[in-house]
Amino acid sequence: MDADERGTTERVLTLLGLLQQRQVWTGPELAGRLGVTARTVRRDVERLRALGYPVQASQGVGGGYQLGPGQDLPPLLFDDEEAIATAVSLLVGAGGAVADAGDAALRALAKLDRVLPVRLRQEVRALSESVDSFDGGRQPVDPGVLMTLARACRDEVEAGFGYPSRGEVRERRVEPYRLVASDRRWYLLAYDLDRDDWRNFRVDRMTGVLARTWRFRPREAPDAATFVQENVAMRVYRHQARFLVHASEDTVRAQIPASAAVVRGRGPTRCEVLSGAGSLDFVLLHMVLLGHEFEVLDPPELKERCRVLAARLQAAAADGSGGL
């Protein structure tokens, strides 16, 4: 493509952008914006029509050019940043960050996939196919980092990044598998090559994220959303606890953030809750505040803590002067 052709193409794209910004433009207004003659504007309008864009023209007062509706529009003209930002926003909606928007977000993402140019369609599809969720993602992260990790997941190539550990940032080499959106953050499920084990990493803590050229043979991976949720809610803590709660799974899920506990149904009126904390008393307090009857399943020492705290509460509620 020579310089004249590039100039014409850029001008036509600018014209399309102007038509998308406002309902009606007069010929002289468009000519002034583009720095060309009204005759050149008419030629560029014909080029858009030839590409399939329904540009309508009307005469008289209030007349001009406008982009009309059409059933079969040609590919959308998104640049990379717009496509990535749109896809991430739709994926967050599909993951549940926006109430009652999940199905609509998924439909919109499917439509976006159909009308994007092939190059950007592949990029957005890489992101959508590499994301799981156990709630809606809300913590803002760099969409370019998400796309880099999504491409690495799709292409099955190693990734590298800096990650804080024990007070210092260390380089990590991983085989990336899935991106997971929680109720607050984005995580990457990956196989840590230096630690020879599965790990999840907070995307907002990563620095210098790069997709490497070394391909890997996929291992048998755990369920991404379940693995990350259980790590976030339980395994990172000193103590883990398991309860049988006498309330439905939906009821308890509405009371506990997904990042705070794992809730599993055990019939229509009971559910199992798994959570972790630095103190067993802290976990017990939260279970009491749910307001449902419950039983301690694990660990055994938590039952003793129940007896100790129950006696303490009963003593606090007993009548007596208390020295006053």
Could you write a compact summary of the structure shown?
The chain has helices spanning 3-21, 27-34, 38-50, 80-94, 102-115, 118-128, 143-155, 224-235, 249-253, 280-290, 300-317, and strands at 55-58, 64-67, 131-133, 157-165, 168-181, 186-192, 197-202, 207-215, 239-245, 261-265, 271-277, 294-298. It is α+β, with helices and mostly antiparallel strands. It folds into three domains: 3-67, Winged helix-like DNA-binding domain superfamily/Winged helix DNA-binding domain (Arc Repressor Mutant, subunit A, Orthogonal Bundle); 80-226, no CATH class; 237-317, Malonyl-CoA ACP transacylase, ACP-binding (Alpha-Beta Plaits, 2-Layer Sandwich), CATH 3.30.70.250.
Poorly predicted residue ranges: 95-102
Q: Encode the helix/strand succession as letters.
A: HHHEEHHHEHEEEEEHEHEEHEH
- Helical amount among residues, as a percent range? 40-55%
| Structure class | alpha+beta
The proportion of strand residues reads 15-25%
Number of helices: 11
- The total domain count is 3
How far apart, in Å, are the first and last alpha carbons? 93 Å
Describe this structure in words.
The protein is of the alpha+beta class and 324 residues long. It is elongated, with a radius of gyration of 28 Å. 43% of the residues lie in helices and 25% in strands. It contains eleven helices and twelve strands.
